[in-house]
Specification:
With 194 residues, this protein is of the alpha+beta class. Helices cover 25% and strands 31% of the residues. The chain has 5 helices and 8 strands; from the N terminus they run ββαααβββαβαββ. Strands 1-2-3-4-5-6-8-7 form an 8-stranded mixed beta sheet, with helices on both faces. The radius of gyration is 16 Å and the shape is globular.
Length: 194
């Protein structure tokens, strides 16, 4: 899955557009700097304070799997760009590929706070889901989201994801507290493609 990928998705009503592509180390380093935003800890439930040059640690951290059917596999990590020549505003990924069950996990994060809550994450995730179903043959994609992250839960529900389970006090936050997780899934026949 290391081939060059360039995916494009446009929101017809607004004209917003995102491009998804593999990232060079300099672009990952840019995301690591954006991840230093303290507000991301509560929103994403992770400790974003990676070493500025440790791109492998960053990719490994965002590629951790949480769903029981996920398997250790090479993740497909794509930067989210507003133009193919710009710096990424976030990332979207597929991870935990289980080719026996044709399943994977996904995650999306718009790390540049200027572009959060504007629909770019939804566009990026929608395009990646279509790619996973149509090009990779995946049949079911899962996501885990902190139950307190209402905007992300609503975003994925709008794409057709459904809550399959609530895991109470199952995710350790950076401060040591335990938070609730929503397990959500999307199948190829339930994605909202329009």
């Amino acid at each position: 899955m290391n081939q060059k990928i360039l995916l494009e998705q446009e929101h017809k009503a607004t004209g917003f557009k995102v491009f998804l592509t593999c990232m060079e180390d300099e672009h990952i380093k840019h995301l690591i700097k954006l991840a230093q935003d303290q507000s991301l800890i509560d929103l994403l439930g992770w400790n974003p304070f990676f070493e500025p040059d440790n791109t492998e640690q960053f990719i490994e951290a965002i590629s951790d799997c949480t769903l029981p059917y996920s398997r250790k596999s090479q993740p497909l990590v794509l930067g989210v760009y507003l133009t193919p020549e710009s710096l990424p505003i976030g990332y979207v990924l597929l991870k935990g590929f289980n080719m026996d069950l044709l399943t994977a996990e996904t995650a999306v994060a718009i790390l540049d706070k200027k572009y959060r809550n504007k629909g770019y994450g939804k566009l990026a995730l929608k395009r990646l889901m279509i790619y996973a179903f149509d090009e990779l043959g995946i049949k079911r994609i899962g996501a885990t989201i902190l139950l307190s992250n209402n905007s992300s839960i609503n975003m994925v529900k709008n794409l057709g994801f459904v809550v399959t389970e609530i895991k109470n006090k199952s995710w350790e936050m950076p401060n040591g507290e335990l938070a609730d997780l929503a397990f959500m899934e999307l199948t190829n026949d339930s994605i909202r493609r329009k």
